[in-house]
Amino acid sequence: MKKKFLIIFSALTVVLALPSCKKYLDINVNPNAATTLDPKLLFSYAVVSYVNLRTSGDLQIPTALAGQTMSDGFANPTGWAGGGENEQQYLINPLIYGNPWRAYYTSVGNNLKQAIKIAESATPRNDNAAAQCKVIMALVYYELATLYGDVPYTEAFNSDIPYPKFDPQQTVLNGVIATLDEAIAQFQPTSALKISDYDLFYKGDITKWVKVAKSLKLRTLMTMVDKDPTKAAAIGAMMTAGGMVSSAADNFAVPFQNLQGKWNPKYDIGNRYNGNINFFFASKYVTDYMDPMNDPRLPKYFDKPATATNYVGVAPGADGFDNLNPRISVTLHRADLPETIFNYQEQLFYEAEIYARGLGVTQNTVTANTLLKAAVNASCKFYGVVASTADTFSAGLPTYVAPTGTGSVLYNIHYQHWVDKMDRGLDALTQFRRSGPEGSEVPALTIPIGAPTNGLFRRYEYPISNEINQNPNAPKVTIKYYEKTWFDL
Q1: pTM to 2 decimal places
Q2: Alpha-carbon distance 185 to 132, whole Å?
Q3: Phi and psi for 88 in degrees, rounded to 5?
Q4: Which of 122, 228, 290, 445 is most deeply packed, by most CB within 10 A?
Q5: Residue 43: inside a domain
Q6: Is 356 a domain residue?
Q7: Domain that includes residue 412, residue range
Q8: Does any domain span residue 398?
């Protein structure tokens, strides 16, 4: 039953409207070429498509369940599984593999490409608009590469090349860094020419755009550095230069509205198909870490049954019980929940990790612990914990001094970082894979109950029908969900 919901819901999310979406839903009748338009229209259409994709049944649900940040409740009648195997058991509909691919390259990427071309050929030239588009384009390629592996990049969006080659993931991620560098250099904070009213992130605040572009570059470097240790020098240079996201005011997010048709899809699916009951249960891997600490984010993340004493998550693939196991909070998955792409605590988690590992800086466990506490503090406040409670909790965290293992600062940085991204399935999946070599990741996930024993879920498979079968330059060897991509050690 839930599979039918998912397919319907995936199709519906592409037309959900954000605050200013009605103005430009029909701007581009040709998916391969835009007529002459103000680039802000193409930009906003692409952003709406991108954000709806991230919150949809094609990305959020499969990556959260297969990545085990949430549990399906299996036999619970109002859980996602309803007693049947699903994404938690790595049973993923081929449409789910194909829909994000199509969205990234068409409704998002192609419109951004056209907007950049128009902005840079305009008189006067609109460099800020082009740079704003390039930041989102970098995100598109970062997510495509980390999700699928090798993807079309150097020959993509070229109307003269109907069958683009697939570039190695390393090439694509280096291209992401280059695109962000290009955007950073192109931004002109004092110029009045920019996307403002159609900028759902910052309303044209170019200073904030520069900050987040730098932080997204740092994220990309951190994703690559274990496979390519030479990136440590660039990480150190960025830490010295600064200028990245520096407070919650810089958070990179798009708002939804508490109006029908403008709801966040995370809310809409439970409201529409489950009597406003959240389909998803807390994962045991989240609560087992948080509950012993009496973490004040727990009641922000989850709705605990009145009969339960503690927050007892469900082992992925196991049955969820309504008198024992908490579900994802209806307040967290509210109608107007913004979709966050990057936030202040993510920046702090990376900085803590950099000092814990000595990546381009002198290793400093004291600084790493300080930054970890600051990151947890920011995370608590982000999720609505009262400031005084957040301050007390984060200040009271242990100072981790063990060189390795669960008592080390690095282990707890990785675990806290993953817990913070509990509701961002795609981002949590990437964080898990980059947290250590296979078998040493944080947390120590095991294969969900009922899933095949080939290995943990690590990637999306290539869409066979709308890419592999049609493109003679596509990989012909079937690559499975449990096979690692280049950055994943």
Answers
A1: 0.94
A2: 12
A3: -65, -30
A4: 290
A5: no
A6: yes
A7: 343-420
A8: yes
